[in-house]
Specification:
343 residues, mainly alpha, two-stranded antiparallel ribbon, TAT_signal_bac_arc
Amino acid sequence: MSDIQDRLEIFDAIAERRNERRRFLRFAGGAAAGVGGLALLSACNDDNDPTPSPTPTPTPTPSSTSAQLDIDVLNFALNLEYLEAQFYSWAAFGVGLNPSLTTGVGTTGTVTGGAQVNFSDNVVRQYAREIAQDEAAHVIFLRSALGSAAVAMPNLNISGDANGAFTAAARAAGVVGSTGTFNPYASDENFLLGAFIFEDVGVTAYKGAITSITNKTYIEAAAGIHAAEGYHAGLIRTILYAKGLQTPSLRTAAGQISDARDSLDGSSDLDQGITLPNGTLTTTALATNVTVQASNLVPTDSSGIVFSRTPAQVLNVVYLSAGTGRTSGGFFPNGINGNIRTT
């Protein structure tokens, strides 16, 4: 059995164990998800789980510029979590978030699209379920941390039809033709590519946002969510690469999506696909120079560090629009809620 297969079986076992332990987290139904969400998540941990995330401080009163900025940054993150949670919830379970988890400051939006994926690969199914639960938990946590300052979910477009944001993104990347349709709910492979659009953006968004937060409790919470998003991105990139060994077009499509994100977020060439451009890795950090065939499952710079995106760059990607001054588009057809909303 290959090394990549061994790793995938380990990941699958971990995912199954965690899902069994957290199965009762009914984020798509029941008022308890909104009112007692944090207590419920804490109860899901068994004796072998790590220490749960710290309880957030009470809703801050914006008495200073820094306090208001903390609120703005967390609300910016909450908008992104609404998007991810709705996409994964629909893909994994065929339902969206409970409406009690979507209200808040501003107009509560609706979700266009969404469907359950008929997974053929049990590994992908388990990953989808685990990530869906994590993203719903992020929504609950951020809403609790923000309290009455939490923004409502904006209008979202996660449709897989010809007018959907996924199709627009796939066309722009060249994954499908100019008149083609990309449905992320149509197959395991399409789901993975759809998830790939989001996960790397989430990792770089949280890394970029942490330095703007001043409240230490919020910093720790944001760092914890950033780490979770990093694990999610690693899982998606790993299984895409593994499936790409049999279907090279998957690796090509991932590279095209990466290039498209790069074209949207500015002139710097920072984003990376799941394979190195030349297919090799050369390092001088070892005793001798070694050149080997290599994947690119962890997109880092020469120092082994993941890059950051500013909020404006993140919005460029999710609005599917380059340049400055845009306030809506793509996955957020009417923009996001909160004070940080312009590219």
